[in-house]
Amino acid sequence: MSDPSPVFAREVVRHEPVRRDLRVVRSEELTSTMVRITVGGESLARFSSVGPEDHVKLFFPAPVGERIARDYTPLAFSPDRLELDIDVVLHGDSGPATRWAGAARPGDPIVVGGPRGSRRAPAGARKYVLLADESALPAMSRWIRAAGVNAEVLAFV
After folding, report:
1. Category of 58 on φ-ψ map: left (φ > 0), alpha (ψ -120 to 50) or beta
2. How many C-beta neighbours within 10 Å does residue 123 have?
3. Average pLDDT over every residue of 46-72
């Protein structure tokens, strides 16, 4: 088997693992089943997420001795405001992410870890086919931005 085409080569960037104690800045209902939570804090000063499929780990409030975490692709990061936007699908259950996102208010604490690493979009690709359900919309959005204005993108949601 030959090596993959350099057109599809993806640069890997490693990040130092960091635990960030952040606070909810605002919460915005996007649809009846999706909410955008913006978190912020000084510990985002060295935050980096350069790959379209990067993920961070959100650690939700839990009973002592337990650790409840879920992975999310951050939609956007504002280095000027030190804010990170995370879209959460409200699945209608009482899971920890739905509970937290449905009740999140400015000032609420949240711990965010990561990303541990990034894989940049292939620099030479000019055509993309993307498929996503609502939980993958932040990643799809990042892929579209990473593809650039000269690429052709066919997206199925």
Report:
1. beta
2. 13
3. 91
Query: Going by C-beta distance under 8 Å and a sequence separation of 6 or more, which residues neighbour residue 99?
Result: 60
pLDDT digits (tens, 9 = 90+) for 130-149: 999 999 999 999 999 999 88
Which sign does the torsion angle of CA 92, 97, 99, 104 carry? negative
pLDDT-above-90 percentage for the chain:
69
**Torsion from C-alpha of 82, 87, 90, 96, nearest 10 degrees:** -50
Share in percent of the chain as helix, strand, coil (round to 5)? 20, 40, 45
User: How far is residue 86's CA from residue 77's CA, in Å, rounded to a whole number?
Assistant: 9
Average pLDDT over residues 81-98: 91
